[in-house]
Amino acid sequence: MTASGTDASGTGSGTDAAAAAPRRRGRPARTEGASGPGARERILTAARTEFAERGYDKTSIRSIAKAAQVDPALVHHYFGTKEQVFGAAIEVTFEPALHLPDVLAQGPEGIGERFARYFIGVWENPATRIRLLAVIRSAVTHETAAKVLRGIVLRRMLERVAAELAVPEPRLRAELAAAQLVGIAMLRYVVQVEPLASADPEDIVRMVAPTLQRYLTEG
Q1: Which label site among 4, 58, 167, 207 has the fewest CB atoms less than 10 Å from its CB?
Q2: How do residues 206-216 score in pLDDT, each as one tens digit?
Q3: What is the model's pTM?
Q4: Taking Cα atoms as reference points, which of 42, 47, 138, 39 lies closest to residue 85?
């Protein structure tokens, strides 16, 4: 060993010590994939899957982050609490059901049939039905999830329907119509009660449309 702190090969002992020192623990550095433009969508996709497979109670911010391959802090950054993540996932999941593109635009005549056909059509779509089933199952087993679902359905669907109705008590009528359709969805797709579960969708539309029409239009 020389006075300058190097051995005979010229390698510094300080360098050896630094190489042998353990790495400092801490959060891994974020990459473009972990925090880039697609991270929010990955988190939402992961959240829908986690809530569907685990239910509301057993899903955590950490499990969502792990499935999305992001830091849990990023989930909080985009969405906040688990309740808020669930709400965002519901918004995306229910978007087809809440859009109501042509149901209201064509006026009161035939609105019961259009409403029934659109709602049943969303549930008959296999891809949409899987997502809706996951949300409904979480909502019926956990009050927080149910509260989030109620808020979204009331704000996005029922209030919009009620605003278009020129009848007394439009909010109540919109809720009655929604209750009729949600009841059908629960019995047909969730509980699968026969013969409703195997009935032709057009038969369901034909039978329920007059009731919806009465709720939504008769003074």
Answers
A1: 4
A2: 999 999 999 98
A3: 0.66
A4: 47
